[in-house]
Specification:
Distance between the termini: 56 Å
Structural class: alpha/beta
Strand order of the largest sheet: 3-4-6-9-10-11-12-13
CATH superfamily of one domain: NAD(P)-binding Rossmann-like Domain
Length: 689
């Protein structure tokens, strides 16, 4: 059988997307010379030991000296009380981010007015009663030698009556595409009132001890709504042409200047491109920023996207590192105002290159500092191997929307700084950890760091467990950095590693441990259908490990996260791929932004999708699938890949239970879930055993 092109569109096929044009690299733009600017002249590095000299050079903004070029941008923490007051956990969260050594930390978006709140647990700055809590955060940041800043914000139409108890305000009577419900167009009087509230919020920001205030003019929120023809259809002086649409933002800046004077630094965050028909383009954004520059803006943070294009706001791993940097470089070349770059800048070497090549003056490393708050210190000391890199999995976004708190796959301490504390073990014990996946590695690392004598063993010859196969697709290669990081931690903490050896009850008994940690993971479910034993049927991990790797007509059984990723991996390698899924849609359970991009890419590669369908049998010609209404059909295939879930691999636990040893089970061998759960459980056990 020879490989075939995908069949014509069917009722089950993914709809054709209209994806935006993706920049094909962070450094398409040449280094941009500055007519004027702040900070020392930047030259290419002359020696290896100068590799980070630009990233860790100081930067002066008016009277304000920022000790280095790394910025923690405003990111929602959801560690705030329901009414917007600051908690001890929030203070510790920001202190921890500052303790790692960035130059500036910008506190998350603070609402300037009650109807501008976009969700529960949003910080607020619309009343003096919030000053004390905000002051605590500012003091915590400053105590670490870092510049404290804060972002002020109004959601406009990008909220709901359920949240604010009234119709959302907007420039025009155009509802937010992603939120149902009518909106209330702002009157001139309402606009003047909001200008006053933004300025009053800026005054409070200074009173609370912040050295810079940033106006959130991006991501589809109120100020962005006025700037963009996508959302502003007004016919008065606050709409129409570019100058009219920019009037609201400019008047906010002028009023802040009038109240705070010329010396207090003001930043403006803009979506340079919205990636929607009729939305802002970088050309328009430059013209808007020229007006804002004249109004008194001192520095610009260059982002992208709005509520309809969230993948440009919080870029998933499918998108390239530094994908927004060309916009920052272009804007920097057009303005005399310095620029902050943002957008998947998770690596200090990438950040150094951006500064060295004069594409931006400062770099925002938000998710990178959630993953490892000590990244700046580690980079400055040259200990890059010790950095826990952000992998752009967007677990932080998913956890906010699904769990109401910020969490991180690679960093279980995020948001739990006061709960997960490393303390020396009361007594050193001999621990045997079986399974070197993320759960076992995490448990071994922290147990050893606390003083236990730890042996880690695995039947595979390498560390990483299922992360090894999971990192094979091109778009998931950043998982390799997580494997390297965890492997480095067990090595640094003296964990004895025994790899490529079979482990059974006799082995455990001979080791005579004080306690055994079972982290043996899971194995793929193999459906009991006729023909499943045919030689062209593979499990997903077999394919990822290189079996059946040729490009050919492929049917993937299972349209969850694993099935969709396998399908894209094979399609990118040249295979014609179909997905068969029992549910009404594919990609269920995937974080929403990642799912959007993943489905667009599957469609772009011509992947066919058959939903509400199940595998009936495998024949020589391919997979026979059944639909409750359409009956059975043969999907021609040279390869069938099974991705229908996993089952716990806990047979070893049953074998050694009779030895009478203290035993702990972790990760997928308890219940198949994900790497975040495995790392968290391993960390908790390592800190407590």
């Amino acid at each position: 059988m020879t490989a075939q092109k995908p069949c014509a569109a069917s009722s089950g096929r993914i709809g054709s997307p209209s994806p935006a044009t993706y920049p094909r690299g962070a450094f398409l733009a040449a280094p941009v010379p500055r007519a004027t600017g702040s900070g020392p002249p930047i030259a290419p590095p002359a020696h290896e030991d100068e590799v980070m000299q630009h990233l860790f050079s100081p930067f002066r903004l008016k009277h304000l000296e920022i000790p280095n070029r790394i910025v923690m941008p405003a990111l929602a923490s959801f560690l705030i009380e329901l009414d917007g007051t600051i908690t001890d956990r929030a203070v510790e969260h920001y202190r921890r981010r500052a303790s790692g050594g960035p130059g500036m930390v910008i506190v998350e978006a603070c609402a300037v007015s009650p109807e501008g709140v976009v969700s529960a647990h949003q910080a607020r700055i619309d009343d003096d009663r919030f000053l004390e809590g905000l002051s605590r955060i500012a003091r915590a940041i400053r105590s670490e030698g870092v510049v404290p800043a804060v972002q002020i914000h109004h959601g406009g139409r990008q909220t709901s009556a359920k949240v604010i108890g009234r119709k959302p305000l907007a420039p025009s009577p155009i509802p937010c595409p992603s939120i149902r419900g009518e909106v209330e167009p702002l009157t001139r009087e309402g606009i003047r009132d909001l200008i006053d509230k933004f300025a009053t919020a800026a005054v409070r920001a200074r009173a609370a001890g912040f050295d810079l205030v940033e106006i959130h003019g991006a991501h589809g929120y109120l100020v962005n709504q006025f700037l963009s023809p996508y959302s502003n259809r007004r016919e008065d002086e606050y709409g129409g042409d570019l100058r009219g649409r920019a009037r609201f933002a400019c008047e906010i800046v002028r009023e802040i200047r009038r109240r705070l004077g010329a010396d207090y630094p003001v930043s403006f965050k803009i979506s340079a491109e919205e990636f929607v028909p009729g939305g802002l383009t970088v050309e328009e954004s430059i013209a808007i920023l020229e007006l804002l520059q004249e109004a008194g803006v001192d520095i610009v943070q260059v982002s992208a996207g709005n509520d309809a294009t969230p993948e440009w706001i919080c870029q998933p791993m499918f998108m390239e590192k530094g994908c927004l940097v060309p916009f920052a470089a272009r804007i920097r070349g057009a303005l005399r105002t310095p620029v902050m770059a943002v957008g998947r800048i998770n690596d200090p070497l990438l950040a150094e290159r951006i500064i060295r090549e004069q594409q931006a003056d400062l770099v925002c490393m938000g998710r990178g500092l959630l993953a490892d708050p000590d990244m700046p210190k580690k980079a400055r000391s040259g200990d890059l191997d010790a950095i826990r890199f952000c992998i752009a999995c967007n677990t932080c976004m998913e956890s906010i929307f699904r769990r109401g708190r910020v969490e991180c796959l690679v960093n279980p301490f995020l948001g739990r700084e006061q709960e997960l504390v490393l303390r020396p073990a009361a007594k050193s014990r001999r621990l045997l950890v079986i399974g070197a996946g993320p759960a076992g590695l995490s448990a071994a690392w922290f147990a050893a760091q606390r003083g236990h004598e730890v042996t880690l063993c695995d039947r595979q010859p390498v560390l990483g467990g299922q992360l090894v196969a999971g990192s094979e697709p091109r778009f998931k290669r950043e998982l390799k950095s997580l494997i390297r990081f965890l492997a480095r931690q067990v090595e640094r903490n003296g964990v004895k590693r025994l790899l490529g050896i079979p482990v059974d009850a006799a082995f455990v008994a001979a080791a005579k441990p004080d306690a055994v940690v079972i982290a043996t993971g899971s194995s793929p479910v193999i459906p009991a259908v006729p023909g499943i034993e045919r030689p062209f049927v593979f499990s997903y991990n077999q394919v990822l490990n290189g079996l059946g790797a040729k490009a050919c007509r492929t049917v993937v059984i299972g349209g969850g996260a694993t099935g969709c990723e396998i399908a894209l991996h094979l399609a990118e390698a040249g295979s014609a791929v179909s997905i068969v899924e029992m549910a009404p849609r594919i990609g269920q359970g995937i974080e929403s932004i990642s799912r959007k991009v993943l489905l667009e890419r599957l469609a772009r590669h011509g992947v066919e999708v058959f939903t509400q369908s199940r595998l009936v049998r495998v024949e020589e010609e391919g997979a026979v699938v059944g639909h409750p209404e359409q009956g059975e059909r043969l999907l021609a295939a040279e390869r069938v890949v099974l991705a229908v879930g996993c089952r716990p691999e806990n047979r070893l636990a049953e074998e050694i239970r009779g030895l009478g040893l203290e035993m702990h089970l972790l990760g997928d061998c308890v219940e198949p879930r994900n790497a975040k759960a495995a790392i968290y459980e391993g960390t908790v056990l390592g800190l407590s055993i």
